Amino acid sequence: MPTAANLLAIMPFPDIDPIAFSIGPLAIHWYGLAYVAGILLGWAYARRIAANDSLWPGNRSPITKTQLDDFIVWAALGVVLGGRLGYIFFYDLSAVLRDPIRAVEIWNGGMSFHGGLAGTTIAMIIFARRNAIPIWSLFDIVAAVVPFGLFFGRIANFINGELWGRLTDVPWAVVFPTGGPFARHPSQLYEAGLEGIVLLLVLAAFVYGMRALKSPGFVTGVFVCGYALSRIFVEFFREPDAQLGYLLGTSWLTMGMVLSSPMILLGLWAVLRARHQAAPQL
């Protein structure tokens, strides 16, 4: 006899059109709106942090609102170009080599967070040097606001019915249109909660409660560690990309885990470096 949990575990996927609205022949997708929302909210939050001199070393913000306004274009390019190139190299290279036009077909696989992180990091380094901004402070302010983009991006993944989870019978499982007639973990929502909401609150506690921005690089390290741990945890519930599958064994090591694991060490190094640099000031 089926239990209530079993019955709920075969919930159909919510009927949400991936296209938010259309203007003539132009279709506006939720995925694109998610990127816009993440960037704009992150930009607004960054301006608020930058305007609070008491949060920064020497009680003076190292970046102006005007500089942040200029940087938003650099950040957008870093996220989009890095994210797409990262997906191609990490997840879809063989398919793109067979059919190069696939490289611009963003609906085939989409974006890679790790590639977007690399692209944005390069953009930050160049922008900081051109504008005489301390690199680690720019890293910190961007790290503090990235969870906005992660949250909206994962919600868009859920709406699109992509990057779904592994088979399960948990009461909140969902049957995705592209995932076969099987109940799966809504792993996109797990990531939205951990990488978005939880990580945003943790970073805000360090920024405002512990004045961590006074130790340049500390917030960056916390973000990198926090994201890596969240991603590795969710990878145990997320179905790996079909073209790669599991890299070791039949049910655990994925490309997401491989790319995220070094981030833990990198994040810890950034935290320890920041504490060491700040020690003489204490």
UniProtKB/TrEMBL annotation:
UniProt-recorded Gene Ontology molecular function terms: phosphatidylglycerol-prolipoprotein diacylglyceryl transferase activity
Keywords: Cell membrane, Membrane, Transferase, Transmembrane, Transmembrane helix
GO biological process, one term: lipoprotein biosynthetic process
EC number: 2.5.1.145
Name of the top EC class for this enzyme: transferase
Top-level lineage group: Bacteria
UniProt protein name: Phosphatidylglycerol--prolipoprotein diacylglyceryl transferase
Organism, scientific name: Rhizobium lentis
Gene name of this polypeptide: lgt
